[in-house]
Amino acid sequence: MAGFLKNIAKKVTLELIYEVVDKRTQALNDRTEMLCNRIEAMNTRMEQQFSAVNSRLEAINVRIDQIFQMWGSHLEHHRK
Fold it and tell me: What radius of gyration, in Å, describes the C-alpha atoms of the chain?
């Protein structure tokens, strides 16, 4: 009888341990998912900002090219 009760106590103890581990694992999984979502959102924002910076740099480069063309035309006009 003592062996039977000891066996039942072990099974109940294991079930409680499994339950705690499952809850903690689920909490960790939830937190990991939340962190992954935050990282994904940050990456999306960074990509948008990078794209905006690239667009602005391209516009600046176009304007610089226009200024050089105007300057070149201005120099040619004064050489004549």
Answer: 34
